Amino acid sequence: MRRGFTLIEIIIVIALIALVGTLVAVNTESILRGLGEEPIDRRLQKVIREARFQAASLKESVNLRYDEENGTLGAWSATGNLLASEVLAKLASDDFPEIKFEQILPAEGLDSFRDETVPIYQVVFRPDRSSTPFQVTVDDGNTSYTLRYDPFSAIVVEDSRI
Known about the structure:
This protein has helices at 7-35, 40-58, and strands spanning 62-67, 72-77, 82-87, 98-106, 113-120, 122-125, 134-139, 144-149, 156-159. The chain has 162 residues and is of the alpha+beta class.
């Protein structure tokens, strides 16, 4: 009785190893590419936290703006210096996401804010860690949602996705 593998068995095993290796390499590349992309709301929250921190540490107002032309969320000092920024990934349509800031108007009487908003170009964070009462509308090409922030903590108090 002969022991060992035939040439065909060896070729089949090598082909299967090559196939599995190719599948792993392709999936690993897509997983790693996906890991580098944080959702827009997380990137927005990062820049908001940095803007609040910089306003308190510099003891001057810091402005949060979105440059739709190059897809950059930026925190700017009162003197015009860029303090923090996040570049957003382009969408499948090769455009950047649409991000709009809106000021929430104060209410009369006992309610602190009403549902009326006014579009604004930037959100101002002050050294006392307060900000313009604001909400952000994000349109990423697939979905559109609104995040309403508390002006004193910059925590999302209302998310239209939930």
